[in-house]
Design brief:
The chain is an alpha/beta fold. It has 12 helices and 32 strands. The strands form 5 sheets. The chain has an 18-stranded parallel beta sheet that branches. An 8-stranded parallel beta sheet has the order 2-5-11-15-17-19-21-24. Strand 29 and strand 30 form a beta hairpin.
């Protein structure tokens, strides 16, 4: 076992150095590890491995002198080249003591412009000083799982053919990554004591349960990012850098210090995330969209079409459990969602939180889609009571929750048409003015001549065929529009006509207000 408390605890499974207490792997044909070889033995070993040789130095404590000689032996003037290299459980010291009495001065361990032809393993290695891998190429992947970096660490300009594994690693100094051509970068359960910068050009980045005490800036090119139960101790961001970057999940993560900029959120899972209302969305951050086209099925109505809006990925499995499921079983979202049981109540909370986040960011227009999603979830929720559900149904039907101006205008046109029909059929009398008749009562009857005026009120037209004339229809349209919009002066109507106009005056302004509200919701900033 290693006696140094600063080193990761491990049990050696390799041939050990003959030096007492040393955990380094014994060099073949010798009795000691690299650090404890005599100078003549070290010369033989370095000559034997040559440039591009394989190394197995597990558990070795490497000081600057022998490490420098090793790197020099593998260097041909154009960079250091390794074959397979296993530095697991190694400790790298990089310091100088002035005449053996001065204070410890930490230096930088350089692996710059090195090439690892085979697998490069630094599992549970400890870097006592700073370390740089500038311009290094890992041609068969690399693993730093459980490694400890005491000083500043840089992986800038690194190319990785395969996976770059940093799960469980601990970074105590400033850290920056610049990884390209990599298949996956795994930072699960890694710890970053200071602010980190991570630039990745590859397929995926996973940082589940990682802790970024000083925050982190991700710059991702054409890769997916997963951040489940990740801790951000300071302002952090995920930037798509104008590429097809996408975030897959933030479940269990506190989003209060996180910003998404120019990343695709169409597959992102928010269920279980904390303080979603404080997340910031900047630039191009699209969500998923409902299925396209018209649908037919055993539902009411039997033919339907989904309106265009932004939806959360969790809405897909929720919709797939209902009657109108066609198109909501997207194969793109199938992985990770097939066992998702997010209900309407939880979906409404997520939509409400994201709506607030956009409203706080002064994006009122963008918040409209999330308000629509919230109302949809409430309308279908089992916890919504009957009266409230009826109001929500009417709100949805007449104006799409105040987000669909076309629906409100359509309802207004239907209302005007219905008013016109009723007025033409039952609301208009034969004429629009009283009929007056003047006559004289003869003296023989009244004693003296008397003149009288008779007013005759017109009644409804008795024959249905006589009701539908151009003149009556024109008057009915004018009165219907006046009742809805312009508030014309009272017309002479039948009792049925009076009630018809009252209905127009009640519902017309309501529909107009809903239409104006929908337009304002789409243009307000």
């Amino acid at each position: 076992m290693a006696d140094d408390p600063s080193r990761p605890t491990f049990t050696p499974t390799w041939p050990l150095c003959a030096t007492d207490g040393c955990t380094g792997r014994r060099i073949e044909t010798f009795s000691a590890c690299l650090e404890h070889l005599r100078n003549s033995e070290l010369d033989i070993f370095l000559e034997r491995i040559g440039r591009g040789g394989d190394l197995d130095l597990r558990g070795t404590v490497l000081g600057p002198k022998n490490l420098d000689r090793l790197l020099a032996a593998l260097n041909s003037g154009r960079g250091t080249r390794f074959g397979k290299a296993d530095f697991s459980y190694c400790t790298f010291h990089r310091y100088w003591d002035k005449a053996g009495q001065g204070p410890r001065v930490e230096g930088v361990i350089p692996f710059n412009r090195a090439v690892f032809d085979g697998a490069a393993r630094f599992v549970a290695a400890t870097f006592e000083g700073g370390v740089t891998f500038w311009g290094t190429s890992f041609l068969s992947g690399t693993s730093f799982e459980g490694a400890v970096f005491r000083g500043r660490t840089s992986f800038s300009g690194v190319e990785v053919s395969g996976d770059a594994l940093f799960s469980g690693a601990r970074f105590e100094g400033e850290t920056d990554f610049g990884l390209s051509k990599v298949e996956s970068v795994r930072l699960g359960a890694a710890f970053f004591a200071k602010r980190a910068y991570v630039v990745v050009k590859g397929e995926s980045v996973t940082a589940d349960e990682a802790r970024f005490e000083g925050g982190v800036e991700f710059y991702v090119h054409d890769a997916s990012v997963r951040l489940e139960r990740t801790y951000f101790g300071g302002p952090s961001s995920v930037n798509g850098a104008e590429s097809k970057a996408r975030v897959l999940s933030v479940r269990g993560t506190d989003l209060s210090d996180l910003t998404f900029a120019n990343v695709d959120l169409s597959q992102c899972l928010f269920a279980g995330a904390h303080q979603v209302d404080k997340v910031r969305l900047e630039g191009w951050t699209p969500f998923a969209e409902p299925p396209n086209g018209w649908r037919i099925g055993w539902a009411w109505p039997p033919v339907w079409r989904w309106g265009r809006r932004q939806v959360l990925a969790e809405e897909f499995p929720w919709r797939a459990r209902h009657t109108k499921r066609a198109g909501w079983t997207s194969p793109t979202l199938a992985m990770g969602l097939q066992r998702d049981n997010t209900g309407a109540e939880r979906l409404a909370v997520m939509y409400r939180s994201l709506r607030k986040a956009l409203e706080d960011g002064k994006n009122e227009a963008g918040a409209g889609d999330f308000y629509y999603g919230e109302m949809e979830a409430r309308r279908h929720s089992r916890s919504t009571k009957g009266g409230e559900r009826a109001v929500l149904w009417a709100y949805w039907l007449l104006s799409g929750y105040g987000q669909r101006a076309s629906r409100a205008f359509g309802a207004l046109i239907v209302l005007v048409g219905l008013l016109t029909l009723l007025l033409t059929s039952y609301g208009l009398p034969d004429g629009t003015a009283l009929q007056q008749m003047t006559g004289t009562i003869p003296p023989a009857v009244a004693g003296v001549p008397q003149q009288v005026v008779l007013e005759v009120k017109p009644g409804p037209v008795s024959l249905p065929a006589d009701r539908w004339t151009a003149d009556r229809a024109s008057k009915a349209v004018r009165i219907a529009l006046g009742s809805v919009v312009f508030r014309e002066a009272d017309q002479r109507l039948t009792p049925a006509g009076v009630w018809t106009v009252m209905a127009g005056r009640a519902f017309g302004p309501l529909l107009l207000a809903l239409a104006v509200l929908a337009i304002r919701a789409r243009v307000k900033r």
